[in-house]
Amino acid sequence: MKNLILGGVRSGKSRLAERLAIRSGLPVTYIATATAQDEVMQARIAAHCAHRPAHWKLVEEPLQLASVLERHAAPGRCLLVDCLTLWLTNLLLAENTTLLDTERKALLDRLPLLPGEIILVSNETNMGVIPPGELSRRYCDEAGSLHQTLARCCDRVILTVAGLPHVLKGEPVDE
C-alpha cells in the first residue's frame, strides 16, 4: 500500500506516519531527506530521531530518493519517507539544474512498481498566499504538482490538521 500524508508545519503528519508504520507490524526503514545545515534543523532532526523506535533502520538520502526506495522496498517491509518537500528543496537548490526533473521522474516512474508498504510525508504548502520570490513560487508550484501526481498513484492520501487525520482518498485511519 502506498500512503501520502500531507500537512502543514507541526500538523502531526510525521507522528501519524510513525503510528501507521508501527501499526503495519512490518520491519521499518526510515528514509530521511533532511540535511542539518543549521542549529534549528539539527534540533528538528534530533527531535524526530527521539520519537522513532530505536530498532528502525535509518537511511539518509537528500537527493536520490527513487534509488533508495527501489533498493529497500520489499514485500513484508515498510518504508517511511520524511519528507518529500525537503527532498524537493534539496533538488531545487542543487547545482545540477536537471537533477530535479530526473529525480522527480524516477520517483514517479518507480513508485507504483515498488512492493511493500510505503508511507510518504510531505508539507502542504499551497494553502496560503502566493510567495513573492521566484524560488519560493517555483517551490510551491513544484510541490503542488508533485502532490497531485503522487495522490493519483497512492492508495491512501491523508491531510493532517491540528494532529487530526482527514482521509482524502482510501481507507480510514484507525485512531
Secondary structure category: alpha/beta
CATH class: Alpha Beta
Rg estimate, integer Å: 15 Å
CA-based shape: globular
N- and C-termini, Cα separation? 19 Å
Helix content: 40-55%
Q: State the strand order across the main sheet.
A: 3-2-4-5-1-6-7
Tell me the strand percentage band: 15-25%
Assembly type of the chains comes to single chain
How would you spell out the order of helices and strands? Answer: EHEHEHEHHEHEE
Number of strands: 7
CATH T-level topology: Rossmann fold
Main pleated sheet: 7 strands, mixed
Count structural domains.
Answer: 1
CATH superfamily: P-loop containing nucleotide triphosphate hydrolases
Mean of pLDDT: 93
Second rung of CATH, namely the architecture = 3-Layer(aba) Sandwich
What features would you describe in this structure?
The protein has 175 residues and is an alpha/beta fold. It has one domain (2-169): Rossmann fold. The chain has helices at residues 13-24, 39-51, 65-72, 84-93, 99-110, 134-153, and strands at residues 2-7, 28-32, 57-60, 78-82, 117-123, 156-161, 164-169. It has a seven-stranded mixed beta sheet, with helices on both faces. Strand 6 and strand 7 (164-169) form a beta hairpin. Helix 3 packs parallel to helix 5 and helix 4 (84-93) crosses helix 6 (134-153). The longest helix is centred in the last third of the chain and has 20 residues, at 134-153. The chain is globular, with a radius of gyration of 15 Å. The model has no long low-confidence stretch (mean pLDDT 93).
